[in-house]
Each structure stands twice: as C-alpha cells, then as structure tokens.
Amino acid sequence: MTKPEGRPCPGSSPSILAVCGKWAKEASVAASHLLFPPACLVCGLELPAAPPGASLERWLAERICSACELDLAISGGRCSHCGLPSPGGSDCVGCRQLRGRLHLSVLPWQQLFVLGGYADRLRDMVLQAKRPAGEDRAELLAMLLLRQHGQLAEICLDAVVPVPMHWRRRLARGTNAASVIAKRLAWQLGVPQKNALQRKRLTPLQRSLPAAERPGNVAGSFRLRGRQPPGRQVLLVDDVATTGATFAAAATALLEAGVSVVYAAAVARADMTPAANNPDSLP
Ligand SMILES: [Zn+2]
Ligand SMILES: [Zn+2]
Fold first, then answer.
1. How far is the CA of 91 from the centre of ligand 2 (A)?
2. Which numbered ligand comes closest to the C-alpha of 46?
3. Residue 212 phi/psi, 5° resolution?
4. What topology is assigned to 76-277 in CATH?
C-alpha cells in the first residue's frame, strides 16, 4: 500500500451559520460565568476571569488552570507517525516495532496526533472522560489536543470520524469518549463529524488479550455505515491508542471505502508494554 500525500486546503472557510452558532454558544457560556465563576475541571481551583483573545484560548482558560494544563500537555518528543516517544524522524524505532506488531509494511494513517502518554494525570483524566459524567473532561482533552497540534487546523479535512464502539458496549458504558472528543474537534475545526464506521461484531475487549492477539481481534471488524465514504481526507479519532490495532483496522476500513488520506488523533498514547498502561482499565 502506498502512503498517500495530504492535499492542500483550497482556502475553505466555515459557513456563516457555523460561525454564528459558535458565537452564540460562547456568548451564553460567558453569561453563565457571570453568575457562576468557572472552576478548573482537573483540580477544582476557581479560575480567574478569562482573558480576551482567540476562542480556543478563552475556552480553555474557562475550564483549566495553567498548572493543570502544564501537567496534561506533555506530548513533546513524540514521533508524529507512531505517537511513541522518539527524538523524531519519519521512521523511528517505534514505527518499525508498530509495523511489525501489526504485520503491515506501511501504517495506514498519515500522521498520529497525540496529547501525551497514557500515564499519571492524563491517564486519570481519560478514565474520567470514559464515564457518562465525564463528557466535559473529554471535551477539555479534545481542546488541549487541538491546541497542542495547531497544524490540525491547516489540514483540509472533509470529516472527523470517531472510532465506534459496538452498540451493546456503548449501551453498557453510557457514553463513547471517542465520539465526544471527535464532536468537539469537529466543532472547533468547522468540519462535519460523521459516524461513518460501525463495528461488525462485538469483539473481546482488547485489554483482555495479549498484545500479539489484538490485531487479529479487531482486523476486519469495522465497516462503512452507508454507501458513500465520509470524504477524501478524514481525521479518525479515538480516546487512547495502545497497540495501534484498532486504529489500523478502522483506518483500513476507511481507505478501502474510498477515503484517500486518514489522519489519526488520540488523547493519550500508551507505550507498547503489557497491562501496565491499559486504557480500558475502568474500575
Ligand atoms: Zn487545575
Ligand atoms: Zn515513529
């Protein structure tokens, strides 16, 4: 499989309706903050008045204190392709290991955008974001990811697609953090969110399997919902990437359906070690 190149954005801009909707929502949040001063979603500290400026900065300033933000935004020194700690380059040791584990000659995504490693406070936040009451945290993580990777706004995306959860698992859990993150990213980027994929079958949880068996567990488990691909260039979103097997299976389904380029984004990237940083270890 030849790795496709991204296409330049032909100067597209968000619709007037989208801009007005965004402005109205932000104005209503600002009004509510006059009555109820916002507190940091991580540590609970009351936040100072948000400074004027770009909407992403203001949005974050109303939800997280600067100390917690520093704690969470820790993706420096990661490979932009496999998301693992690396001094950089297009073909790092992590990329080679990942391709080997997935039995692929080329990773099916163009780039992998990651906020940080699946550890410490970011791990705690992700676990909270996986619960129905944690959707505000999932949104916060999405916005931190976006600020960390400003280049996402420069890619001409046609759609943001969450990695779907099987409906039975979604029903049991009450939410899908990947969908919440994708929705927020799409909103902020001015790109449609499309639930373009569905799970063909309920597979055993990846966490229940050794790393070597995970690619086989999810391979071929996704299919396109509907007949049309969600666009030429798509951002595929999950909450956590561990072995990369789920991303690989979902990205392959999109490419086979006619998508030209798949970018991937995950809030946290677990190292390729056993259970120590298992993303599904919900209590
Ligand atoms: Zn804080
Ligand atoms: Zn790499």
1. 5
2. 1
3. -65, -25
4. Rossmann fold (3.40.50)
Distance of alpha carbon 4 from its chain centroid, rounded? 21
**Ligand nearest the Cα atom of residue 68:** 1
Q: How far is the CA of 114 from the centre of ligand 2 (A)?
A: 12
Q: Please report which confidence band the pLDDT of residue 282 belongs to, taking 50, 70 and 90 as the band edges.
A: very low
pTM attached to this predicted model: 0.82
Instruction: Give 228 Cα–ligand 1 centroid separation in angstroms.
Output: 43
Please give the distance, rounded to the nearest whole angstrom, from the Cα atom of residue 87 to the centre of ligand 1.
30
Is 244 within 8 Å of 101 (Cβ atoms)?
Answer: yes
Closest among 8, 6, 9, 1 to 260, alpha carbons compared: 6
Instruction: Please give the distance, rounded to the nearest whole angstrom, from the Cα atom of residue 122 to the centre of ligand 1.
Output: 13
* 120-129 helix and 177-189 helix, angle to the nearest 10 degrees: 100
For the chain, the structural domain boundaries read: 18-71, 76-277
Ligand nearest to the Cα of 48, by number:
1
pLDDT in tens, 73-125: 765 688 889 998 876 656 788 899 899 988 999 999 999 999 999 988 899 99
Write out the two tokens for 82: 């496999």
Tokens of 222: 């996704």
User: pLDDT by residue (tens digit) across 19-43?
Assistant: 666 666 666 666 666 667 789 999 9
**How far, in Å, is the centroid of ligand 2 from the Cα of 19?**
37
CB 229 within 8 A of CB 257: yes
